Give the backbone structure.
Amino acid sequence: MRISSNLFKLEDYWAVWLGFFLLLGGLTLFTGFSKPDNMDSRFSEINRSLDLAASQAPYKTIEYYQAVDQKNGIQARKEAVGSFVARFVAKPQSWETNPIDSFYTSAAEPGESDLAEYEEVTAELSRSLNAAKTAHDKAQRAGFKDKSLNGQAETAIDDWYEAQTISSGLKARLGKKEFNIVPGLIALTVLIAVLFAFGAHFMGKDVKGFLLSFPCLMALAIFSYFMGEQETMKHLGFGYPAWAIITGMLIANTVGTPNWIKPSLETEYYIKTGLVLLGGELLFSKILAIGLPGLFVAWLVTPTVLIATYIFGQKILKIPSKTLNIVVSADMSVCGTSAAIAAASACKAKNEELTLSIGLSLLFTAVMMIILPVVIKASGMPDILGGAWIGGTLDSSGAVAAAGAFLSQEALYVAATIKMIQNMMIGAIALGIAIYWSTVVEKGTGVEVGWAEIWNRFPKFILGFIGASVVFSLLYYSMGPDAGSALIENGVIRGMTAPLRDWFFCLAFGSIGLATNFRELAPYFKGGKPLILYGCGQCLNLTLTLIMAYIMFYVVFPGITENI
Amino acid sequence: MNIKLKKFLVLIASLGFLIAALFALDRLLMESNSTYEDMAEEIDQRDIDMGNALNFNSDETSSTAIYGATQTLAHPPGRKPQQDTE
């Protein structure tokens, strides 16, 4: 009876309702109105071409790459309805020197220097295509029995593909269509405000105050995205979470956070709803297709490092706050900010603890993103091992992609894959932390607490988070990998729910910043213990990941490594 | 000077200082560290969106790489053609 009466009163449940409303709404829009024409027959045809191309040589041929690209181009978010929704939830765009480029760009004719660059790239593409064809013909004439010729052909084809990627990117940049995201941002502000106000009404919150102050919080979120999208900020890994928290804190500690904006500073509400959407992005069925080595690296090392770091923090460093300890440990061992948010919500950590943990993550990621590739190159480590090391230890996916791509395409494959597998662990880890906190930490020693009380303390939105993951994984599985990729991953998730989730997290970071006092943050950093915890945990992470990656990629599954 | 205006100016100055410091750090790293420079070029070239955090699904580079990896496993080169495809 109490549960049913709480269903429309508690924030946790409202996070689940709103999250599922968006997930199911997105699913209807993308699978019902944005399904690519003749999708199934097109996939069948391309798969036949792919199998044929795969059978023609012991390496990926030009036709193979072309078929993969063609297949990857079939996406629901590129159809009319899908692209409309994707534009509606779009964030400010990348910019370098002109801030207006982030919001509006007119369809300008390319300049002379751009055209000259394009001609140069096109000439290089043509040269590399001829070289690839020649090398392939030689290997083919030898019946693919000459390993040296096969290797030369593979390298030449890889070079051509790299040139083609650059050429396509440049072509897209030169042919950039006019865009204006300002109307979309206004509409998005209204949509998010109404959505959250609806739940706030049932929870008995100040709806009028919320609606009036929300546009200002959204303006802070837009500013944070805008700054994070600047090229120099991207180089430094200084993205929207950092800008939202820091700008919010600067406002709070200079002019002060005005009282009238406080009704919209619903940090937990935004985070929990965002986490339910994040659950929908964790497609378990997809990782089964990726292979075992990465699975072992991510799923054995990550929990080991998390638990070891937490114990180290409690027993050796004696960190006074258990919640700070677990948030920093999860942030460092799993996948940075997303894991920190999930862990903090699961153990009900304070905002200051989450802020500190995210700050440490951003700092270490920016430094490690540069140091790791230098160490890998200097030590002559194989690219695949280096990629596995990067994927298992760098916190943010963007940094992983940058560092992996810097080494080689193969390193990028491995790094991005391991990161994705690691990201899948967020749900299980958040659930584990929530159960541990409800049944052990909050229970206290020598105090008997009934199951009803444990249930009361349990963060219910975690069930929505896990439920969303299970529902979307089953849908993906039932559709098959091709349709699942086109409609779920490259449809509802990337076209709608993932950008919305990012907006919700950005609003949460802005709220955290606006509610944080510098003086309240300082005690958490006393003695530099969180920094020591993060540093020691990361050293363990680096060591174990490297050992496990070597064992899995070169001792246990060398055959899989050869085929990457 | 009005206290509110003073506080507002402190806010603007703090933000300006932060931005200037980050630009200076970027320039310093560009000049002193070739890996940083190469990495920055890589980021520019591939236009990795939101190269910071929470960007798993916004990051097209990772997504394309993972898509390529799944296709390699589903259609491994050197394999005989199958009668029934996916």
